[in-house]
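README: folding subset

This subset contains proteins for which both the sequence and a predicted structure token string are available. Records are stored as plain text. Below is the entry for ABC transporter substrate-binding protein (515 residues), shown exactly as it appears on disk.
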Amino acid sequence: MRCCGPSGAVRLIVVPLAALAVLAGCRGDNEQRIDLAVIGRPADLAERGARLGVAGQLVQAATAQGLVALDAQGQVVPALADRWIVTDDGDSYIFRLRDGTWPDGTPLSGQTVARALRQALDGLRGTPLGLDLADLAEVRVMTDRVLELRLARPVPELLQLLAQPELALRRRERGSGPLEPAASAAGTLRLVLIPPTRLGLPALDPADPRPASLQLRALSARAATEAFARGELSLVFGGRFADLPQAQAVAGLSRRALQVDPAAGLFGLAVVGAEGPLAAPEFREALAMAIDRDALAGAMGLTGWTPTTRIVPLSVPGSGGALTLPARAGAEPAAPVQAAAPAWTTAPLDLRQAEAAARVARWTGRSGRPLASLRLAWPSGPGADAVFERLRTDFAAIGVTLTRVAAEAPADLRLLDLVARYPGPLWYLNQLSCPARRTICSTAADARLAEARAERDPARRLAMLAAVEAQMSAAAVFLPLGPPVRWSLVRPGTPGFAPNTVAFHPLPPLVEQTD
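--- output ---
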């Protein structure tokens, strides 16, 4: 049985003792205020539900807690549960709840937390995150302070999943902080620390500095970067490749201001239309073959950005090379499964584009009509402009006209730009499955994915997932380009922020006392 919980190396974010932001602005009554912005629309700050954007995730994780949470480094730390153990077979996680109450005064108990967790899980049904949690079979109350989560099979990434903002728990629409809204206006939300005594916790020491408030605004990328350049903001969250040039221009004033997360995930073109030539896997594969990914890396304008042709990156454990499916007792050994990139990736670009052009010509000849242009739903922004022009040029080289439409408009192809919630092949394959509804999909690959999910043997499961990746790659429902880009602007010396692999930057650490 493995035990986890707080230690001297872990800082609890559930009870920030005090706040002192180096660059917080001074207000009346000696109030310290940290001004922040997240790139998005004003309405995003009020988002609730199972599919949250960056602003909604930030607010949800600041005003409510799950059993566990993510710290500034993207690591799992205690939240409503102050410790936990995992059984040796991996089928059960047992959580001990901390002392305290909900904001309405109700005791924090196994019954109330279990009810809130079940409601949150019900709300995730039919979402990609719900697929990741599909093996969570039962939420069981063991005692007034102890919960057990029983699994249908081991889920090594369960703690990372439980730490997601969508699993921050609420009772009667109110979360347990550690922050709460103090005021809001169109596109602006002021967050303050909930007095610990309201949560059944010890009071702050009057000798400690007064906790800072956070003033969070939702702004366009241009407005946010300009406000940062004027010194009005300490941090800007939620940057993507589309607006990277604007951040780079601002960061030129201070090279340390631009912070790029070392994130992994999916960044590429999702095929969402299955009419005409896109109904044929060989035509979809021709589009993937045509892309000059080395030139695309130059268009991205980010040193170290590495293009890929694979759905599951090589950096993900269990994703690389040929895997042999271990034989069951009495059975013949299975042939190795090649999980590597498609065979055409080793060919020079000119040969790839020639083969792709031949496939386009064959389809045009068989159909007897000219090939209609393909609509690509694409974001706005200078970085997006540069990458689109690169794609348009590559597609034109094989006889395909690419037309840009708004990000939410009807389209044949759509940008898929997602950060992985945990480092495992299953996350990537779940995103491209039929229930996720992100792309056209392969029902045959989905059937094999279900078999892989049900497999308990870790080695067999990895090999089965590799086979699913190979099948999805052959179906060409998604055209990989490289890793997602996530950036923030951070005033040098601002505490409580760190680039991390999940590209999520919780707000509570910004108002923790620094040692």
